[in-house]
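pasting input
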Amino acid sequence: MRSWVYIPLLALLLIFTSCGTGGSPTGGPAETPSTGEPRYGGTLVRGHNYGDPANLDPIVKNEVAAQMVTMNLFDTLVHVDPAAKEIRAGLAESWEISPDGLTYTFHLREGAKFHNGREIHAQDIAYTFQRLVDPKSASPFANRLEGVVGYGAFRQGEAAGLAGVETPDDYTVVLRLEKPKPGLLYDLGNPATGIVPREEVERLGDDFGQQPVGSGPFQFVSWKKDDQIVLKAFPDYWGGRPYLDQVVFRIMKEEATRDAEFQAGNLDVMVIGEAQYKRYSQDPTCKPNMIEVPELFTRALHLNTTKPPLDNVKVRQAINYAVDKPLVIEKVLSNKAYVAVGPIPSSSPAFNPDLKGYGYDPEKARQLLKEAGLEDGFDLEVIAYNYWASSVEGLMGYLQEVGIRVKLVQMDSTTVFDRTASGDFQAAFNSYGGNLDPVMTMYRIFHSSNFGRAGNTTHYHNPQVDALLEEALYEMDEARRIQLVQEAEKIVVEEAPWFFFNYNKAVMMHQPWVHGLQPVPTDIDYQDLTKVWVDKK
Amino acid sequence: MGSFILRRLLQTAAILTGITLIVFLLMNVASGDPLWALLDQKSATLDEETAQNIRQQWGLDQPLTVQYLRFLGNALKGDLGRSFISRQKVTQAVLERAPATLKLGLAALFIAVALGLSAGLRPRCGGDPSGIFSAWWWPSQVFPSPSSGWAFF
């Protein structure tokens, strides 16, 4: 009879329990008190936002959808710790770099095993690298080993193998380079160069990507397409078995589904979007279970410097002055982003805190447009895929205010990539980054040898920037590299081939019983699961 | 009777070939380089040498007619090729997903037949022949034509 009373009550109850079963504000018995001591056992259920990865062979797919799984399955020569911005020992216990930077000698640890139980030898590293570069493998990541002696000859079919990889004994690998490549260790820590066992690759052939066998802390158990991927702890991992017994990646593209499953306590960890962030960050019971990190992604409006009037630097600067970025970030992105000053984000080792970006100054924007002979403004066509539509819409009003009439054209992502690769666009909104090595990032997007698909979509060309980035590419001294790349960045910011908008703030929600998650800036989904443990009863 | 079956089989073959041709052309007309599917949306870059290598290995550098005839020739031998992304055999990928599709299709067919028959065979004053028609109309919404019905299986 009075059942309507229960509806608001139920709603209230839902709000208060929105952080899953363990987060009751009154301190119910649901939460197991943590002793702070990691414990073994249990399953971690992770939300997988990106859709089925389709292939878990590390040389075929390397995007977040695949890599958040493969990074646990395949071990690499060295480990890159993106949170600490450090390179650590992996399958190689130690290594030496010759003074000229051309020879890398890796000493493998003895006793490290593949998931099939066989010990890893130097020949496996050589085989893995051959396979990655082999033109028959058709890997999009072959160029991770570009610069190794014989790379070009092998790629062109003039040699039967990669000459620059040698194995003087079972536990030593020597890599010889044609030119110094200071970013090499970053590449050798990426799952794309994850070590594979030859016998399994040959046994499974093209199906290796469906039943991956590696040597990482977790081994493959099962995969139900578009549903879930299950991994279990590898007891013989050289670093000791991980705390977790099992990891389940539940493939859920729908935000609402993840939300419901998280609140029901069926999901332990999930990465959240703007709308969820607004809700969860305002809930005091959720806050302690939220991890935030400025990710290495810069969202920007890419301005084609060959298309008038954007070929005029004043016009590009005007666009940068026209927008009140903090306000758009607050209103449109629910503060789930950081204001950008330049292309290098704040979590990069090369971030320059002294760099002066563009403040909000519509007067100056109008003045610059006037100097460019555009008192009456101009029409600007912006292409973007629908994920970015609201971001572009957030900018439109401000640009209109100074006379820039924006027309937003939405299309699917591959069409956007096709058009930016071929230069057939005026302005395009996108996010770019994910690489911890600032030199490689800057080189790809602003060096004139990389026009189009290779990364420099704006056809930005400045000989001084080219020279600085080339020098940085071969400079072995880390401090000097960073100095060079920052000098290049200063010029790029001044010449504004991008409207520098924001750096992504990635946010991960976890249940109170999950411990050891890290704010990983390369992508918050790239969690080192050897450190994670659960104390759920 | 024999010539009728033969005629229908030939018609079906022509329809199936037509469908493959149209789908093949549509996929090629739709913009979007297939190479993007291998890369991350957030930092999709690929140098020309690598891109060319991938196209070559998958035969994507060949003229469209060659690509289509190669597909058709292999398909006749029961080989639908391998997925560009998963590198799985396409037949295997189809079989993996077939149980779910069949479950949905059969459930829908069941509902449609039940609804259709009861709607159509309801006794009517004067025995309206259109009732028989509607009895088959519902199921035909699940399997609209013989050729697409077979393709479904």
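fyi The first helix of chain A runs from residue 6 to 16.
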